[in-house]
TrEMBL record, chains A, B:
GO MF assignments: gamma-butyrobetaine dioxygenase activity; metal ion binding
Official protein name in the record: Gamma-butyrobetaine dioxygenase
Domain TauD/TfdA-like: 117-354
Protein family (similarity comment): Belongs to the gamma-BBH/TMLD family.
Transmembrane segments: none
One Gene Ontology term from the biological process aspect of the record: carnitine biosynthetic process
CDD domains: CAS_like
EC numbers: 1.14.11.1
Keywords: Dioxygenase, Iron, Metal-binding, Oxidoreductase
Domain Gamma-butyrobetaine hydroxylase-like N-terminal: 7-87
Amino acid sequence: MTNAHLRPDAPMVHVDWPDGTSGDFPFIWLRDNDPAGFHPETHERVADLTAVSLDIRVTKVQADGNFLTLWWQDGDTPSRFDLTWLRGHLPGRRAHDPARTGFAPWRADLGRDRVPRIQADEILLSDAALQDWLIQTQRHGLSVVAGLRADPEAGMEIARRIGFLRETNFGITFEVKSKPNPNNLAYTPIALPLHTDLTNQELPPGFQFLHCLANEATGGGSLFCDGYAVAEDLRQSDPEAFEMLSTVSIPFRFHDAVTDIRNRKKVINLDEDGQVIEICFNAHLADFFDLAPDLMTPYYRAYRQVMQMTRDPSYLVRFKLTGGEMVVFDNRRVLHGRDAFDPQTGFRHLRGCYVDRGEFESRIRVLSRSRDPRIC
Amino acid sequence: MTNAHLRPDAPMVHVDWPDGTSGDFPFIWLRDNDPAGFHPETHERVADLTAVSLDIRVTKVQADGNFLTLWWQDGDTPSRFDLTWLRGHLPGRRAHDPARTGFAPWRADLGRDRVPRIQADEILLSDAALQDWLIQTQRHGLSVVAGLRADPEAGMEIARRIGFLRETNFGITFEVKSKPNPNNLAYTPIALPLHTDLTNQELPPGFQFLHCLANEATGGGSLFCDGYAVAEDLRQSDPEAFEMLSTVSIPFRFHDAVTDIRNRKKVINLDEDGQVIEICFNAHLADFFDLAPDLMTPYYRAYRQVMQMTRDPSYLVRFKLTGGEMVVFDNRRVLHGRDAFDPQTGFRHLRGCYVDRGEFESRIRVLSRSRDPRIC
């Protein structure tokens, strides 16, 4: 049976669940999150926190069946909480999120044959297949979709199963082929060392989709490297370089006739718990470093160290896309590159687009609703 | 005359300009930024840093007219730098950026009459007017465009003069009017306390455009508050609250039938120099705080403090938009709200869209090219 009591030493309600879980719920938190304070249709909070005293007090608490009832000193209507919901929202613990499926870092031993692979039709026809594919793609940061129709829209149609496409200065979609007067190295036939795209943007695009319409030229193989694996290895092998790259930002810039987009980014970005959540690495778009002169040499040492790791065959997975295949990867985690190709020997044409992490994770959450009883 | 010499104590070139400017340029920086290492068409860096030794050395340097020439110990082709360009890229100093025009914080004394105001036709017909308007809008975070055609596209046409529109789960554009089955409080007739939009997104939208097509109902006035002013005042008056709000993140969430977008954000966001660069404040979208129980009361104290400040008349500018006017504001700086309105007394319809800071700043930079000789 669930027990609840007022803590004698702090303005909190203490709850013990039969399964051994226990939690402390501050009075002000309980008042702010009273289910009665939310709009019934939009689920948004409408209760006004400024109308509540900071030292609001609960005078009595009662756990009864599946509900916790609280009586307030200010005489307001008692609040009623679902005890299962409360257990899922313990202060001090992150609530369950079906879109946090964990990351599986990989190195060359992943091999091209173990890159997650799915048929386009499965994604188009089945929500369950879509969900499983999204989770695999998030875990590895990389997957291949096969069996696409020979239609320039076929890849974008898959991407739109997740959400709307992220527009950038290169458009909603972009054509990766050799062009006259290129404004980006992707539009030349030269080799592209491993990089992440659009590090000059405040929010570089999340998942990238490259649908191969033709790849008949000599060369033009694709390379991938898990930036999370590189960063974690660097954290162990060279903590000084890791510290430098995760605390000092550098300027990035892209400019052409109609655009001049600049931003500062760190090469390695950590969340509040110190976990790597983003890699920004693009030597083409790196602007002129503006660090203090004495910081420059140690920074270059760290930066060059990562650059060398991203080219080390022990981190690389390499395969050549063929017409009807599409590679999908987390552009803020997995670096991509390509071998040079010879446009005289055949046509090479990839069609690309992006879907940001926000839409990607949202789709996982919504698809999880029918399967996961913990979702409210 | 410009003088340059090799520093005897460090691997750097020291340059003294006739105007008294001087700078130290590390050898590795000079090699990485050799103009010959960039693609002539895309301006992207193609030279490979891993092919350069970290202890690369300059053996001789010569300043001659407007150029600095460097001879390398490894016998590579000497590098040639434009001395004016070098002066604009001193290590340790941020390069000039025409899109950093400075912020003018404001409080109630700005008054509705001093909000920057421009005619739609000027923006549509003149690049110089567009540039001046963008700079004013960036400085104050708020402006009004008047004289729009009575056409639902008229406001979006102005926004597209800057760049493409930022799509969100509410669409590329959105209609702010009372609707049945609302999924957002904006789509009800109730009052909206001061907030910034879409704090549940990893990158909340930058500039917001609200084109008033009709505002004939009783009520429905607009409120604005400069979050930068609030934050700077809080930094002085309550450093503990400022510290809490600028270091501890809280969860935000929006969910409806097809969407579930969650992110953690800090209410006050600082850049590396400690300057306030973003405010995320939205009590409707704030998810259940998951801080440790002991942190909860001090956090609520700080959070409630800001909430009270954003409603304090000494920070507010209030005006009622009329048909043909559009308000434009930096959604990551200026909080907006509205008075309740009575849909029985008349029609109220605003049409909205967003353009992100990246596109906004890019447009300022590109427009500055013809006017500012410092742009390369």
